[in-house]
Automatic annotation (TrEMBL):
<comment type="similarity">
    <text>Belongs to the DivIVA family.</text>
</comment>
<dbReference type="GO" id="GO:0005737">
    <property type="term" value="C:cytoplasm"/>
</dbReference>
<keyword id="KW-0963">Cytoplasm</keyword>
<keyword id="KW-0175">Coiled coil</keyword>
<protein>
    <recommendedName>
        <fullName>Cell wall synthesis protein Wag31</fullName>
    </recommendedName>
</protein>
<dbReference type="Pfam" id="PF05103">
    <property type="entry name" value="DivIVA"/>
</dbReference>
<dbReference type="InterPro" id="IPR019933">
    <property type="entry name" value="DivIVA_domain"/>
</dbReference>
<keyword id="KW-0131">Cell cycle</keyword>
<dbReference type="InterPro" id="IPR007793">
    <property type="entry name" value="DivIVA_fam"/>
</dbReference>
<keyword id="KW-0132">Cell division</keyword>
<dbReference type="GO" id="GO:0051301">
    <property type="term" value="P:cell division"/>
</dbReference>
Length: 186
């Protein structure tokens, strides 16, 4: 299997005692992701987030779920970047988000019958993330701050954001801030 950059994507096996995701399904889906980046298939971030993989057959260790999920989280953000006309980053790199990226970001509405996050709360927090990216220093958000955020559910009829999309994006922000903190730039 190759990623959108034509490089081999390697997922580790699931930990012992955990069957993980079916390898053939993950490989086929990643081929579909690669085709979308080459313009040969249509795939949205919502399609990726809503896709569910089967568990590997009994007696088999499939792919590590966390590794696959992390990869697909990064791909969702990159797919959105490509949709906006930006170049995708090298595979595996932490995406260098800018305040402008945050300001352009839009999340889907939650699926019918599901409660999403309160859109106003999400947008206020996105503003805080953008401010952190614009002004590096001790007054910005930390990875722990982003991990700890807890959005209220949207009230019936109020604007709402798709929970999985918001959570996956925040995972990307946490990884980026953690890398910056580890390098001493925060």
């Amino acid at each position: 299997m190759t990623d959108e950059h034509g490089q081999r994507v390697l997922f580790g096996k699931a930990p012992f005692g955990n069957r993980g995701y079916d390898t053939a399904e993950v490989d086929a889906f990643c081929d579909r992701v690669a085709a979308a980046f080459r313009g040969r298939a249509t795939l949205t971030a919502a399609d990726i987030r809503e896709h569910e993989f089967s568990t590997a057959a009994r007696g088999r260790r499939g792919y590590d779920r966390d590794e696959v999920d992390d990869y697909l989280d990064r791909i969702c953000v990159e797919l959105e970047s490509v949709r906006r006309g930006a170049e995708p980053s090298a595979a595996g790199d932490t995406l260098p988000l800018t305040p402008e990226d945050i300001q352009r970001l839009r999340f889907s509405a939650p699926p019918t019958g599901s409660t999403g996050y309160d859109a106003d709360e999400v947008h206020v927090f996105l503003d805080r993330i953008a401010a952190t990216l614009a002004h590096a220093g001790s007054n910005g958000l930390t990875s722990a701050d982003v991990r700890a955020v807890d959005f209220a559910p949207a009230l019936a009829g109020a604007p709402a954001c798709h929970r999985d999309e918001v959570d996956a994006f925040l995972d990307v922000v946490v990884r980026m801030l953690t890398a910056e903190e580890a390098s001493g730039r925060s």
